[in-house]
């Protein structure tokens, strides 16, 4: 008798292990499976749907353009916009109206059909970017060649499912607040706006004219953007002319000749939108 009991327990244990590893379930009835548990199913995705103890219902299905799949016995089921866990539960509940026992359903995302996102604006290579699992915002911008001069990295737009949010990558570029590096989803649209703010360089520069202002821009960085000084420049008499809010003008004198390291105040003089950098001609 003890031998029979042991054999029964052994068989039950084997069945439990088989169901756990071959057909995992949500609680007991349905479960998400594969590596895309949190992934939102989209049009064109290829799915494997397995029904425990009903092998004739197992299906390889592609999500149709209207977002539905057609499953035996229950007809159309909305798949796009759900996770594999939710879809498995839907199918299981529908099948439960046909079978006495609620079936265990497993949904596996085999391949992603809408596997791309879009990026436009102030990046080196705007366009369509192939989506890979777990791509994040900073990676997406790097895949587009990075931002260009004048990009407003503190006000990037992310459009998802017709909803828009504003995000910043300034901290991410410093390796800080990595929790802001949000995950990109297929069909996302990323817009990196171009700054409309400018600063101006006049006088003895190799390339005088207007330049895009970016937050944290210093005098030396601006002068480097303008390819440095001409041979006639008085580098010890550079001036920043700034319009104040009350309409008055503030003049800041910068002696480039005496900047020796980054701790010097002059080198870290941050510019503001609308600043004019004037480089006078030296006296011979």
TrEMBL record:
Compartmental location: Cell outer membrane
Domain (Polysaccharide export protein N-terminal) spans: 36-109
Query: Taxonomically, which superkingdom?
Result: Bacteria
Is the NAD keyword given for this protein?
A: no
Q: Which GO terms describe its cellular component?
A: cell outer membrane; pore complex
The stretch of residues making up the signal peptide is none
- Coarsely, its chief localization is membrane
Query: How does this protein sit in the membrane?
Result: Multi-pass membrane protein
| Pfam families the UniProt entry points to | Poly_export, SLBB_2
Q: Does the keyword Oxidoreductase apply?
A: no
Q: Which GO terms describe its molecular function?
A: polysaccharide transmembrane transporter activity; porin activity
Q: Which family does it belong to?
A: Belongs to the BexD/CtrA/VexA family.
Recorded protein name is: Putative polysaccharide export protein
Taxonomic source organism = Leptospirillum ferrooxidans (strain C2-3)
């Amino acid at each position: 008798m003890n031998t029979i009991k042991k054999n029964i327990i052994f068989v039950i244990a084997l069945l439990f292990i088989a169901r756990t590893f071959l057909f995992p379930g949500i609680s007991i009835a349905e479960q998400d499976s594969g590596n895309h548990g949190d992934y939102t199913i989209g049009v064109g995705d290829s799915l494997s749907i397995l029904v425990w103890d009903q092998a004739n219902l197992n299906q390889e299905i592609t999500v149709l353009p209207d977002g539905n799949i057609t499953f035996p016995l229950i007809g159309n089921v909305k798949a796009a916009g759900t996770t594999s866990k939710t879809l498995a539960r839907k199918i299981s509940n529908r099948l439960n109206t046909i079978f006495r026992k609620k079936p265990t359903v497993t949904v596996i995302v085999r391949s992603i059909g809408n596997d791309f996102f879009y990026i436009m604006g102030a990046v080196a290579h705007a366009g369509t970017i192939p989506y890979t699992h777990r791509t994040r915002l900073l990676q997406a911008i790097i895949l587009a060649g990075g931002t260009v001069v004048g990009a407003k990295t503190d006000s990037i737009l992310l459009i998802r499912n017709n909803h828009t949010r504003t995000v910043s990558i300034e901290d991410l570029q410093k390796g800080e607040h990595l929790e802001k590096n949000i995950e990109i989803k297929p069909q996302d649209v990323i817009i990196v706006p171009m700054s409309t703010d400018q600063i101006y360089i006049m006088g003895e520069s190799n390339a005088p004219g207007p330049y895009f202002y970016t937050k944290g821009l210093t005098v030396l960085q601006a002068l480097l953007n303008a390819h440095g000084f001409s041979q006639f420049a008085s580098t010890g008499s550079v001036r920043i002319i700034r319009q104040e809010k009350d309409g008055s003008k503030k003049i800041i004198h910068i002696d480039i000749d005496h900047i020796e390291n980054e701790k010097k105040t002059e080198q870290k003089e941050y510019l503001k939108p609308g600043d004019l950098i004037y480089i006078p001609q030296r006296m011979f």
